[in-house]
Amino acid sequence: MPELDDRIRTALGALAEQAERQLHAPGAAAAATAGHRRRLAGAGAALALLAGATATGAWTLSDRPAEVAACTPAEVTAFLPIYGEEEAKAAVGSVLYASPEVTSVVFESRREAWERFRVEFADTPELVNATTEDQIPASWRFTLRCTTDFPPVKSRLLESTRIVDVICQRCEPSPTPTR
């Protein structure tokens, strides 16, 4: 790798010297055209970017594709139907565990969901008192490696399971239609 860096630096240095000679060539007209200067400035900026990428190690020679932009992980919830919960639980679990985009998976039972609901809405006792455990659905809570992975995973879940809804707080588009 150091050999490659040295060769790239040498080539970039030669290109920079050539660009400098063209800007100030002996016997050339005193002022280059604005378009010529812009082209040379653009080439210089591209060379600087390439040199920076090489110097920081961003340029790699591997068979792995380079990540263009960092992904933001996404927390997603797939709500199960109130009736037929066990059947849906198995189907959703199979899809999630087979999905390479999913990095972690946790099943939340109705009882666990009810307890979490009571804690989250403790400041509104009227709501907690008006809701019963059997009204809160069980769910699968899972993490996607990237928000852009949401549409294909959601599509797989809706096509092959009986989930009621899939919600991702930070994924695009925000509103998720129910079945």
UniProtKB/TrEMBL annotation:
Chain ranges of the FtsX extracellular domain: 75-162
UniProt-listed Pfam families: FtsX_ECD
Name of protein: FtsX extracellular domain-containing protein
